[in-house]
Amino acid sequence: MTGEVEAEGLTKDFRTFQRKEGIRGAIENLFVRQYQTVRAVDAVSFHIRPGEMVGYIGPNGAGKSTTVKMLTGILEPTAGRAAANGYVPYRDRTRYTRTIGAVFGQRTQLWWDIAVVESFRLLQRIYDVSDADYAARMEIFDQVLKIKRYLNTPVRKLSLGERMRCDLAASLLHNPPLLFLDEPTIGLDVVAKTNVRQFLKEVNARFGTTMLLTTHDLADIEELCRRLMIIDHGRVLFDGALAELKRQLWRHLQVKIELKEPAQAPALESLGANSIFRERLDELTYRLTFDRSEHSAGEVIRRIVAAVDVRDIFIQEEPIEEIVRRIYTGPSVLEIGR
């Protein structure tokens, strides 16, 4: 039971068929085919120590899911090597998969038409979990995830949040030392997200489970991970402490406000002069962006509430794409955290 992950020069290429348009193109495709090689992951290297919770983020198409698929043994690397829990994932897949858990937000590992408890019992037999360990883990799962109420319900009748809780429990039923999480909170409401995050923190603290988390929700990263890796165009651009990234690059916060009356809009002009950027989204909705080193979120909100009547207000982090763009266009920051 190790939970250690190593990647060295990990690379994955895909060969894609270029289809021609129209009837003539379709006929030509039957006899002459043109292929293009696309590099999804480009010489990625990192080392994850046992018990770490690591965020792995980037824009769509950056190579996150491809990396995870190579680390879980689903895909074989084109070049480089990967090792996890002492195994080479794609080569030792049968033995290796007994030592990991995986949660994919868009897919379920539970059987669709049978009760949740039947899926759990099947997984208990697959992973040779004793009755005593099974009962103890189910008790732990229920304490945080409150899943007992769903055990006799068919999976197809669960809401997305209910299913995600059960998927998390299923992935940890055999107490694996390593857990892969791909968008585990996608589509969940605020309460469900909070429950999932609390559960993952408790599992990590109690069992020392290593976790690699890919997500587009920055709140997941801030709540769970001290270390962050950012990937774009298949290359790791940043690998280091989340606190260091925030200090160097995660400079901006956004406050989205909805006014009660359009006539109050001019009052926003008095907020921060040139140090707070104002963007009008519609007649009543504005987005204010500011440097967190110059203004705190609490200060800005107090000034907004004092200046205008607000119907609703939201604090938003800078989009991941913007952070990645800043890293990609600033070569000197690639050394942060190394």
Structure description:
With 338 residues, this protein is of the alpha/beta class. The chain folds into two domains: 5-247, P-loop containing nucleotide triphosphate hydrolases (Rossmann fold, 3-Layer(aba) Sandwich), CATH 3.40.50.300; 251-317, Lrp/AsnC effector binding domain/regulation of amino acid metabolism (RAM) domain (Alpha-Beta Plaits, 2-Layer Sandwich), CATH 3.30.70. The protein has eleven helices and 13 strands. It has a six-stranded mixed beta sheet, sandwiched between helices. A four-stranded antiparallel beta sheet has the order 11-12-10-13, with helices on one face. A three-stranded antiparallel beta sheet has the order 2-1-4. α7 links the parallel β6 (178-182) and β7 (210-214). The longest helix has 18 residues, at 190-207.
Quick structural overview:
It is built from eleven helices and 13 strands. It is of the alpha/beta class and 338 residues long.
SSE map:
Layout: E1 5-18, H1 22-31, E2 34-48, E3 53-57, H2 64-71, E4 79-84, H3 93-96, E5 100-104, H4 116-126, H5 131-145, H6 160-171, E6 178-182, H7 190-207, E7 210-214, H8 218-224, E8 227-232, E9 235-241, H9 242-248, E10 252-259, E11 276-280, E12 285-291, H10 297-307, E13 310-317, H11 320-329
Parallel strand pairs: 3-7, 3-8, 5-6, 6-7
Antiparallel strand pairs: 1-2, 1-4, 8-9, 10-12, 10-13, 11-12
